[in-house]
Amino acid sequence: MSNSTVPTRLRLLATGGTIAGAETSGRGYRAAALSIEALVAAVPQIAALAALDVEQVARIGSQDMDEGVWRKLAARAQSALDDPAIAGVVITHGTDTMEETGYFLNLVLKTSKPVVLVGAMRPATAISADGPMNLYNAVAVAAAPESAGRGVLVVANDEIHFAREVAKTNTTQVGTFKSPNRGLAGLIHNGRLHYFGPTVRRHTAASEFAPLSAADLPRVDIVYAHAGMGRELIDAAVRAGACGLVIAGVGDGNIPAAALAACTAATQAGVAVVRSSRTGGGLVERNIEVDDDAAGFVSAEELNPQKARVLLQLGLTRTGDPQRLQAIFQDY
Ligand code: SIN
């Protein structure tokens, strides 16, 4: 809540996910079963933090997030952020692909206002559902002036993460979100914020990809490396029309010899190849076991494969040159 008598006004954009999920008979549940109005009504304490304008943008499990929903979400968020009466945006979202949507928005929203993604691991009807507190905390983060200029944030389990850093690391536990390389943006306890530091890479107002252009995003596929990997899936992705490939490499982004040869052939055919790692942490450096300079590869730096895919899609709207793409991966 602001100091004036006018309450802080936020736009709440809903997309579905388990936070809006309801248990079914048996042991299952249906994501996105509940409306955003029902979620907000379950947390009346939010009214003391901010006034909310709510909008249901989609009603899906986040496994079905795609470019079309991203575009709609980015457009609705940008329109809210451009409104002087709106102080920030909260987005409810499934946890499965939240890190990708968060990073995408971090790159394409032209704003300094707070943008916060929030989800839950337990459906709204479960014993000890985590959604209500997560939603309350997300609204508190979005309403706080000190959240401005930090890029897109993810709030869950009393933690605040930078969208660039966060990854889902556990299939079911409420502490699933981790920021393995650079750590938390901060903590939040019962709506009280404690920030640890700023994020270092370019985002939102400083992003060259913001606001999002109308041009379609090029096709980028992720191929997962493993012991005994051959070249078939890489060749198949190129044949299917991929403009870019992200390899979820072993260890430091390494690729078995046959697949490496296919990747080199792909770059020679004009397909961008980015080496990331399947390990879930650390940095893929250039020219360690792979001669990136000779092969024309790009290193993903600390981006996991799914985030590297987002940046490569946007990067390819600007350039296909591996050196310029590498500079983009060092900037964002
Ligand atoms: C989803 O991502 O939509 C399902 C899982 C979740 O929200 O936790």
The CATH topology of the largest domain comes to Rossmann fold
Task: Enumerate the strands of the largest sheet in spatial order, edge to edge or round the barrel.
Answer: 4-1-5-6-7-8-11-12
In round numbers, the mean pLDDT is 97
Quaternary organization: single chain
Series of H and E elements: EEEHEHEHEHEEEEEEEHEHEHEHH
The CATH superfamily of the largest domain is known as L-asparaginase, N-terminal domain
Number of domains: 2
- Quick one: biggest sheet? 8 strands, mixed
| CATH-derived architecture of the largest domain | 3-Layer(aba) Sandwich
How big a fraction of the residues is strand? 15-25%
Bound ions, cofactors and other small molecules, one mention each = succinic acid
Looking at the structure, what is the overall shape? globular
Verbal overview:
The protein is of the alpha/beta class. It has 2 domains: 9-206, L-asparaginase, N-terminal domain (Rossmann fold); 220-331, Rossmann fold (3-Layer(aba) Sandwich). 27% of the residues lie in helices and 21% in strands. The relative contact order is 0.11. The strands form 4 sheets. Strands 4-1-5-6-7-8-11-12 form an 8-stranded mixed β-sheet, with helices on both faces. Strands 13-14-15-16 form a 4-stranded parallel β-sheet, sandwiched between helices. A two-stranded antiparallel ribbon has the order 2-3. It is globular and about 60 Å long.
